[in-house]
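Protein in question kept in full:
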Amino acid sequence: MAEFAAASGVGQKAGIALAATGLALTVTLPATSPVVATSESGQSPSAMSLGAQPEISAAANAKIDFSRASVATKADPDGKLKSLLSAQSAGSVSPAASAGTLGSPLDQLISASPFGYRISPITGGAGEFHRGQDYAAQCGTSVYAAASGTVTFVGWHPYGGGNRVVIDHGNGLETTYNHLSSSRVQVGQQVSRGQIVALSGTTGASTGCHLHFEVMVNGEVVDPKGWL
């Protein structure tokens, strides 16, 4: 019975009273660990199924990164961008990390003219540097904030941008929206990703209705496609 009590998990230093021919016998059992069934060979099922486990090691200089920068959910689409910019300046963000961190400024992105050097649609001259991406959009199309931030400029851009809105997303990252027919925000306003900030147009140095969208990192324009 002492063996039965131990196998049944009857406790730590349990006393068992046995009545036999008028004698009372007290047995004290040592503390035992949880009972694990074993096979006839004496091995537990887990040991039999797993077998010998290989030793796992890592190099002394191995880096384990628990940064939450890569963690984002549909419920918080700004999560990845906020994490990136809270950890470093926008200028230090790698292309792999920046991809997909900005939302689309239009419901549909139909490229009309890419970032970089091109033939000017105004003068026809070669070698003009195009500071953003042009996306086809009928005049009056809703233009959305690419991410949450603070509106820092609303007004006329004297260098061809026409009606323009600029949003500061923090740590050196800005987006600009140009050739607008009208704006829906004011300077100092906090906006959220996907919020309507303007309507597309053809103001300024423009040959037709479209959106000229820029991404600026520490004051310098970069290809928006690296962030969209």
About this structure: Residues 4-38, 64-72 have pLDDT under 50 and may be disordered. The two ends are 73 Å apart (CA to CA). The CA atoms of residues 130 and 182 lie 23 Å apart.
